Amino acid sequence: MMSLKGRDIISIRDLKKEEIELILDSAEKMEPYARGEKFLKLMEGKILGTLFFEPSTRTRLSFTAAMQRLGGQVMGFSGTGITSMAKGENLTDTIRTVERYCDIIVIRHPLEGSARLAAEISSKPVINAGDGANQHPTQTLLDLYTIRKVKGKIKGLNVALLGDLKYARTMRSLACALAMFGAELTLISPRGLEMAPDILSEIENRYGKKPYQTNDIDAGLRKADVIYICRIQKERFEDKYEAERMQKAFRITPEILSQCKDEVAILHPLPKVTEIDPRVDEMKAAKYFDQTFYGVPVRMALLALISGVM
Ligand code: CP
Questions:
Q1: How many CA atoms lie less than 13 Å away from 245 in the CB half-sphere?
Q2: Best substitution site from 52, 59, 172, 275 to test ligand 1's pocket, by max atoms within 8 Å of Cβ?
Q3: Which atom of ligand 1 is nearest to the CA of 60?
Q4: Measured in whole angstroms, how far is the alpha carbon of residue 130 from the centre of its chain?
Q5: Closest Cα to atom 4 of ligand 1
Q6: Which of 157, 156, 195 is nearest to 176 (CA)?
Q7: 236 has pLDDT over 80
Q8: Most buried residue among 13, 67, 245, 279 by CB atoms closer than 10 A?
Q9: Ligand 1 neighbours (beta carbon < 6 A)
Q10: Dist. CA 235 → ligand 1 center (Å)
Q11: Dihedral of the alpha carbons of 58, 136, 294, 149, in degrees to the nearest 10
Q12: For residue range 41-57, what is the model confidence (pLDDT) as tens digits?
């Protein structure tokens, strides 16, 4: 019997395809509870610790909503200014302390590998909510869930990943997962922000897929069933002007969408800045606010499975 009880979720690579399918199927069952139409006490008496060393709106609040919808409680911090890290305490001692107060830890930290380190230190399960430019596995789970909801399947779809494919951790996690589920990948980025060679090799060697790569936004989008766009990760650039220049060139507009398939769906992990024309928000193709909701049932399913209550 497949079980995720007690597991750390640090990279999407930590999960087999069947385990991802279990999470997505369980998330379907969570939807009425996530919407507040039904009530659950599955995690009554349990505490989730949310340690956010980097800004977040969706990930932190949807984990909070997920735990509360499951009947559990949440404690944590956002920013280190009011914690003892401001006095020089290190991450190791912070984790050793927090693991004694809660049952599952969710961590977002700017350093790649920090979530893995936290998992090695903690005896309680650790979920990576984003470590630098590395991985954001729960975003990938909700992205897969959204595609399945919107399109009814993942296999065989042409999914265009558009934007900063070098620094956006959501893109690295998602590209591997989409290949695992049999999607055809088109990778569209400004020059210099292409997907890292290690991810491309993994997609080819492990899943037998060779993504189509281009710097031409128009050509790349024409066959897409799903457009997954992310912002240029300006905070990871030394030259902020260069980041802004690239962002202006990689923008989705109604004019560009008029060249795409009628039923194309647009996803975005959010936050968005200027990479989507505001007129697109009102179009039927825009699915990114539905996507933010799906973070709740997916994270409910994950927390319940890791706790062994589901
Ligand atoms: N998608 C995502 O990670 O959003 P936040 O940065 O707001 O958590």
A1: 8
A2: 59
A3: 8
A4: 8
A5: 58
A6: 195
A7: no
A8: 67
A9: 56-59, 130, 139, 269-271
A10: 14
A11: 150
A12: 999 999 999 999 999 99
Calculate how far, in angstroms, residue 130's C-alpha sits from the geometric centre of ligand 1.
9
Please compute Rg for the chain using Cα positions.
19
Find all residues with CB under 8 Å of 59, minimum gap 6, and list them. Answer: 52, 106, 108, 129, 130, 136, 138, 139, 295
**In 3-state terms, what secondary structure has residue 126?**
strand
What per-residue confidence (pLDDT) applies to 241?
80
Q: How confident is the model at residue 246 (pLDDT cuts 50, 70, 90)?
A: confident
Q: Rounded to the nearest whole angstrom, what is the distance from the C-alpha of residue 132 to the centroid of ligand 1?
A: 13
Measured CA to CA, the distance from residue 136 to residue 212 in angstroms comes to: 23
The per-residue pLDDT for range 181-197, each reduced to its tens digit, is 999 999 999 998 999 99
pTM equals: 0.95
Question: pLDDT, tens digit, for every residue of 132-152?
Answer: 888 899 999 999 999 999 999
